[in-house]
Amino acid sequence: MKSILVALLLGLLLLSSGCIQPKEAPIVAEKAATTEWKADGIVGESEYSRSMLLQGPARQGYSGGEMEISWKNDGEYLYLALNGSTDGWLAIGFEPLEWMKNADIILASVQAGKAMALDEYCTGNYGPHIEDTMLGGTNDIEEFGGSKGAGRTVIELKRKLDTGDRFDKSFSPGQAISIIWALSNNSDISLKHNVAYGEGIMTLT
Ligand code: HEM
Predict the structure, then answer these.
(1) Are 69 and 78 in contact (CB under 8 A)?
(2) If the chain, 205 residues long, is cut into consecutive pieces of 10 residues, what is the mean pLDDT of each piece?
(3) CA distance linking residue 163 with residue 170, whole number of Å
(4) How many A from CA of 99 to the centre of ligand 1?
(5) Is residue 17, in this structure, part of any structural domain at all?
(6) Is 151 left (phi over 0), alpha (psi -120 to 50) or beta?
(7) Where are the alpha helices (DSSP H) in the chain?
(8) pLDDT for position 185
(9) Helices and strands per DSSP (H, E), number in the chain
(10) Per-residue model confidence (pLDDT) at position 190
(11) Cis peptide before 173 (omega within 30 of 0)
(12) Residue 122 falls within a domain, yes or no?
């Protein structure tokens, strides 16, 4: 009993000292998505119904950066925009088991004016992540496009909520999806994130 009280007291002291900051969840902005969705690399004012800004601090090995995720869904499709502070690759991973393991990853970049978005799956804690098609699955990013400028890369894409591929997580309307994200200033997708990485929750409508 005494040791529990001491542990509690120490925890309170650490929290109040500012050494441990309780993490604040990012604010999710909501609006009516009234304009037509287009994979043109421009996130329109009313193109998505929800968005949130995820930030990663500068620290050893990481320059620090942010990614804004915007999304909307109907009963069949998820429409997604990733807007990251990078000239290299950016990625989102759905529902990792732990670290990066078993995350259903979308890895994207815009190089020489051409957007690419890969439907991948991560098999280990820190990779490797490879294209679903190489694991015997299917490429289920049905449409995508992107743009790059002023140190930012924007990718827009759509996929089915339930693609039927075992290397894609299946979603339902209203679901809270746990996500990971990462940015690298390298265009080479085999090179590790070096701008920022983090996690979040993306709740479907
Ligand atoms: C390109 C190849 C990649 C390699 C070699 C790689 C490697 C690693 C390594 C070694 C770590 C441990 C932490 C560190 O060393 O900084 C890590 C952590 C992490 N990676 Fe990756 N990664 C890759 C791609 C990705 C992608 C595409 C994503 C996002 C979809 C991602 C998300 C994360 C996250 C969120 C963590 C932190 C996990 C945690 O501590 O809970 N990584 N990665």
Answers:
(1) no
(2) 56 48 80 97 98 98 98 98 98 96 98 97 95 98 98 98 98 98 96 97 97
(3) 7
(4) 7
(5) no
(6) left
(7) 2-17
(8) 98
(9) 1, 12
(10) 93
(11) no
(12) yes
Distance CA 180, CA 102 (A): 11
Q: For residue 183, which amino acid is it?
A: L
Reading the block at residue 31, the tokens are 């609006």
Give me the pLDDT at residue 24, please: 75
Ligand 1 pocket mutation pick from 100, 107, 123 by most atoms within 8 angstroms of CB: 100
CB 173 within 8 A of CB 205: yes
Provide the domain count of the chain. Answer: 1
Any domain includes 15: no
Q: What is the CATH number of the domain that holds 150?
A: 2.60.40.1210
**Non-local CB neighbours of 196 within 8 Å, separated by 6+ positions:** 55, 56, 57, 62, 63, 64, 65, 66, 67, 85, 182, 183
Q: Which atom of ligand 1 is nearest to the CA of 93?
A: 30
Q: Going by CA atoms, what residue is nearest to atom 31 of ligand 1? A: 182
Domain of residue 81 covers: 24-203
The pLDDT value recorded for residue 54 is 98
Task: Find tokens 């098609």 and name the residue.
Answer: 133
- 156 within domain boundaries: yes
**Residue 91 to residue 110: CA distance in whole angstroms:** 12
Residue 44's nearest CA partner among 170, 127, 145 is: 145
Q: How far is CA 53 from CA 50, 107, 162, in A?
A: 11, 18, 26
